[in-house]
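Researcher: Here's a chain I'd like modeled. Treat it as a single chain, no partners, no ligands.
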Amino acid sequence: MDVVDDDDDDKKKAGGAGGGGGIGSAPFVHLFIWALVAGLIYKIGTRVRHSHARRVRVSGSVETISADVWSEHDALVTSEELRSPQPWQLRAHDAVRRSLSAEQRSVHASICRKPFIPVQVDNPFQSENQFGFVKRSYVCLRFDKGRCRGQAMEDLWNRRYYKKYDVFEASFFMTDTTALNRLKRDDKDNFDKIMWQSEGENYVSALDGGDAISGNKAKQLEVKRNFSEQFGCDYNSLRLQPAQYTMHKPKECRNFFAFADSHPKQMWIKKPILGQGGVGISLHQDHSEFESLRACKKAKEGVDNKYIIQDYIKKPLLLNGRKFDIRVYMLVASAMPYIVFYHPGYLRRSITSYAAASTDRTNFLTNTHFQSLVENFELKDHIWGFPRFQKYLSDHNVAGSQYVSTVLNSAIKKGLLFNFMSARDELVRRRGSYHLFGLDFMIDEELRVHFIEANGYPGFTWSNDFPTRTLVTQMFDMLIELHESGSAFQRMTQGDMYGGFECIYNELEDDCDEKMYNPCYDFAHFNAVPMKKAAEAIARIHDTGRRTRFQANQKVKADARRAQDICKTQNVDVKSPDCSKLMKAERRRKFTQTFKEITEWELINTFTAGM
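Model: Modeled as a single isolated chain. C-alpha cells:
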C-alpha cells in the first residue's frame, strides 16, 4: 500500500509541476520513461535473484529445487495481493514451504514478502437474547460442558456477551483440540459450519492440529524428532526435555534397552501416550520392571497399552526440601500471520518433603490435582509466584536477584519457541483461531531448565500469588484488537509486550529475516553454557543473599544495643515489657525530632528563596 500511495503522490506532483500541463508535458513524459526503465531493471534483477537463489548448497553438493515448486513460490512472493494476504494464499504459502528442505527454507525465508496484518474477524457474529438485545455471544463446545475454563467464561460474561447452549452459531467458541477432532470425525457438517463457513465471523479457542503441541505424547515426540532431524541433529541431543522413548515403536524400544542396560541405576517415569492430570503415570527405580516389553514388538492399532518412558530427573532443585515444577503459558494469538506470546506463570510446590526413592505420586507429581489429596493442603503453600520464588533463591543463596528475569525466562522462551516451530507445519491456518497452551518445566540442582510436557487446555489457578484474572482479561483484549484491527501488531518484534504477554515470534518479522531458526545450532550454543556459572555471572549469586542477611543481622544487633543502653539508664530489665515500652517511646521521640528538623529546614529554604 505504501508503494501505491507514493505513486499516487508522484502523479499529483507531476501533474501540478507543469502549471496545468496535460499528458504531453515534458516533465510527465520524462517521469514516465524513468518509471519504465526502473520497472524493467527491477524485473530483471528479481529474476536474476530468484534464479540464483534456486540453487542451494546441500551437504557440499548443489541441489536444484523443482520447477513446479518454484513456480508456485514465485506466484506467491511476487503477488501484489499478498500485501493483504487472503487465507488461501497463506495456506498455499505453507504448502510450498513444507515441500522445501531445511536448507531451501532459508532461501524461502530470505525473500521478504512484507505483508501487513489484515482484518481477520471482520463481521463478528451477533446473537439476539430473550430481551431482544443484539450482542456478541459465546458457547462452551466441549463434551464435558462443565469443564470450560471458569475464569474465561466469567470474563466474557463480564463483557456483557450472551451465553448460548448447544448451538453452532456464536461469536466465541470455547473448545479444545479433542472436541474439534471428535466433531470433525462425527459431525462434519457442523465442524465445517464453525470452522469454514463462519470463518471471519467467530473466534475459536483451539487450533486445528494443535495436538501436535499438546495432544498424543507419541505424536508430540514424533513431531519434535522429525523437526530436529531436518536440521541434522537428534531431538534428545538438544537436552530440551529428558530423554524419552516410545515403547510401541520397535526401533525406539531397542534404543531404550540399549541405553538402559548401560545405565542400570537410572530411574524412569512411565506415561501413557493419552491422558492428562498425571493419570496413569508411574515411577520406576530401574528398567528391570520393563522386561516384559523387551521383545519390542509393534503395538496393534487400537491397543491402549502404549507408553512413553522418560528419563527421571532424580536430583531436582528443591524449595525447603520439596519438589516443584513451573507452569507457564504460550498463546498462539493469530494464525494469519502466526504471532506467539509468552506469559510467565507460577510454581506448583509439593506439600510433602521430597524423597528420590519414593514412588508415592504426591512425592513426584506436583500438579494441583494430586497435591490437593494431601492432608492439610493449602493453596498458598502449593502455588508460588515468580517474585516469591526469586526472593527464596536470593535469601537462600541459590541464585541471585536477577535469575528469574534473565536465566530462567530465557531458557523457558527457548523451549516455547521450539514447541511452536516444530509443530508449525501441522497447524491449520484459520482466521479467528487462537490457542492458549500451558507448558510445564522443571529445574535440576545444576539450575538447568527441562521442558516436561504441554497441556492444550490448561486450568487457571485462583491463588493470590498469580494474577489470573488479569491474564484472562489481557488475553481477550489482545485477541479482539489483533483480529479486528491488527495494524498495531505488524511492527511487533521479539521482546515487545502487551500487558503481561511477551512476543516471542512474529511471522512478519520471520519472513523478512535471513537468519533461519535452527534448533541444532540454537540449543548447542545454549547447552554449552554451565547454568550455575551463568547464574553467578549474571545474577550475582553470592552478593545478594549475603548482603541481605548481613544488613538484617546488623539492624537486629543495633536495636539490641540501643535497648540495652536506654533500659539500663532507666534501671529497667532489658527483657521486660517495660523495656519494650521505653524503646517504642524512644522511636516515636526520634521520629518526631527528625520530622521537626526536616520541616524547619524546608521553612528556612522557602524563606531564603523568597528573599
